[in-house]
Design brief:
Largest sheet: 7 strands, mixed
CATH superfamily: Vaccinia Virus protein VP39
Helix content: 25-40%
Strand order of the largest sheet: 3-2-1-4-5-7-6
Distance between the termini: 43 Å
Order of helices and strands: HHHEHEHEEHEEE
Shape: globular
Radius of gyration: 16 Å
Number of domains: 1
Strand content: 15-25%
CATH architecture: 3-Layer(aba) Sandwich
Length: 208
Amino acid sequence: MVKNKECFIDYIKKLGLYTEGVEIAFEAYFEGLVSTNQQVNLYSRKMEIGDIWIKHFFDSASIFEVFCDWEGKKVLDLGTGGGFPGIPIKIIAPSCDMTLLDSTKKKINAVQLIVDSGQLIVDNYLSCRLEDSEMNVYTNYFDIIVCRSVKITPVLQKAMFKVLKKNGKIFLYKSVAIDDVKLFKEYKEHKLDIKVLGERRIIEINYG
């Protein structure tokens, strides 16, 4: 576990993102995840807990290799699950306005408990599907959508464009399979050369 944490800390130092406060926040997040996962499944229980630092924290932070303009941006983490990648992004770039969305209410409640108990900050929580009518109030609201673990369907694609501002961006975390990305007419594929993550790429879609 120590080695994995050190690997993550070295990575954010390399990117110029490290502060002592950032490290303390990730430690609090880690402790909250491990404790809460005993009641609510936020990450695979078959996984070694030390791997959280690589498979979730490191992976979530890898977006900073391709995009760093988070200041003042309204960001939606679609299908956040255990708070990935939204909470790591918010820890590193606290000036963004972060909304976590998941259709499973108990996951959103669990993540909110982790955030509150760890004295972390998230700006908004939504427990619904992006295509639900209650999302109408967020029409043309978000500057950025990040999505790490949800397959894109035509219905979901339409809902994403509905809540995005013109000139907004979508970032999809992908590995080898990117068939669903082909729903978008134009996209940019960023292949990341990070051995500990395996084959990893971030797909950037510009809207409008």
